[in-house]
Design a protein that fits this description.
The complex is a heterodimer of chains A (about 500) and B (about 150). In chain A, about 75% of the residues lie in helices and about 0% in strands. Chain A has about 500 residues and is mostly helical. Chain B is mostly helical. Classes of the chains: A mainly alpha (about 500), B mainly alpha (about 150).
Chain lengths: ~500, ~150
Amino acid sequence: MWDSVLAQLGDNLVLGFGAALAPLNLLLGLVGVTLGTAIGVLPGIGPALTISLLLPLTFGMDPVGAFILFGGIYYGAMYGGSTTSILVRMPGEASSVMTALDGYEMTRQGRGGAALATAAIGSFVAGTFATVMLMLTAPALVELALGFGPTEYFALMVLALTALGGMSGGAPAKGAFATLLGLAIGTIGIDLQTGQARFTFGVPGLLGGLNVVVVTVGLFAVGEVFWHAATRRVSRETPAPLGGPARLTADDWRRSVPAWCRGTLVGFFTGVLPGAGATVASFLAYAVERRVSKTPAAFGHGAIEGVAGPEAANNASAGGSLVPLLALGIPGSGTTAVMLAAFQMYGLQPGPLLFSQESGLVWGLIASLYVSNVLLLVLNLPLIRVWVRLLRVPRSLLFAAVLVFATLGVYSLNNNLFDVAVVYVLGVMAFFMRRYGVPLAPTVLGVVLGPLLEQHFRRAMAISGGDPSVFLTRPVSAAILALTAAVVCVPMLVRARAARRTPRSSRESS
Amino acid sequence: MVMPPDRRLAAVLIAGSVTYLLGAFQISVPEGQYAAVGPRLFPLVIGLGLLTSAVSIGLAATADVRLPPVQWGVASSCALAFLAYIAALDVVGYLPATTVFLVLESRLLGSRAWVRDVIVSIAITASVYGVFRLLLGLSLPAGLVG
């Protein structure tokens, strides 16, 4: 049996690398990793924002090429985030916050080169192994998911929405509101099953519903610029000198390799879970490194494991998060939600059928992730000084350009300014959501998954003849819903216990 | 006494939730068509959920939470300039509107280098035009001079 599985995998890889190494796709991969690293370096601009800005532009492109571009951006952003964490203690992405603790300390001790090297090589190791695990687990999950009906998909989507809403940091009620807000936005437009208009208020532009691209651009891109305008930090930090070449000593290697391995495992499995993205993965990996270390007191004072573990973890989580996206069509984070929107834009529905009907696309994307990792290693270490110089790009012009890009991209979708006006309204809304600590990613996930959630719910109910107990009598759906209940209850219990122990509650931002 | 920030938030969210619920009640359910679940159930459940979480945000609000400071002047002038840009696009067209907007908006966002901003704005406008129009064949608002 194993022979046939391996032969199948071999065929798929040949197919995938054939697509990934085609000159145009290779070029798109290179553009993706370069852009990804750049946005990773730049604070305030992340992969979700970038991919949503690029969605309108890739509309006319071959989907394989577009996803190779997006995959490169996703992986590249995880690489680039570490650079500014280490050199200026200014994380480019939330997932690199932990890296700043020991990474910047290493820089101050003149070991910045070693910190950058362990981050880059660790990202390469983790990215590659995560892609191997993606390649092995996604088809297995597909086998499992072939037996899933609307009942199971409904339960899975409830789990994904609940988990992301509950883990986005801040108050659970705000996460819940953010998720429901997304679902509410998703109900705008004509109901496909009955043809009834819902929440259109007589506005013809709303009949077709709000385009997911419009929503992501409004919430992530325009909202981010407004937020930056309002909370601009004027000081510009100058990068510290590297202090020696970006190279690891024998001792660094001895300490880094186990940390990379642990970080990869932690990151991959955290990534597969819904709700817990790269940020949670890096926090967990840091905690693990500290726990297993013989000298936990050294953490925060330039321990190389504190850079190696979290940086491996955030890259591995990117690979892990693609497993449920590709195999089930269920994203668990902001970035993968935008990628699902991209699939929908092409009329593709990720899930078991995608692997059989669009195997060229799936395996092309997986193969391109290997290629991207190699490109990233080659681009990152030698060019580190070039990337750091990106910090000199005036933030004001950059954000003004983001607004122009957002406007034109959205305009080009339907050649009308109505969508642009919607983007504007959503941008203002996102600004106030951020001000009051309401997370944005659950809203985007709600918009993307909402219509599917309702569709599966109604289908399941139609099959069961209107009997809602079907969600609890089918074992897989019951198990997933039980897990969802645990996702809601366990943190509440933990919080209640923690509140009893310490009167002051600390808050993590993600 | 000042209202706790989260209570202000909750007031707005409750108003929004109620509006949504009212909208949900207005969805007409077609008669004679058999469906286990009509077009109204889902919005109703969402609306009730919105209202519940909005109320619990309000109940959990405490007065000791400080919101991050916001430069209202900068934020609102940036937002107004962006609105003006969107409105101007259809009137004067992409090329002039974008160039002027980039210079103005980066100034509002804190840039103080006029010459550089003008040069970079023209470069961005031209290269976006190149990518959208010439490379991808997408249309841009033409206006009068576009």
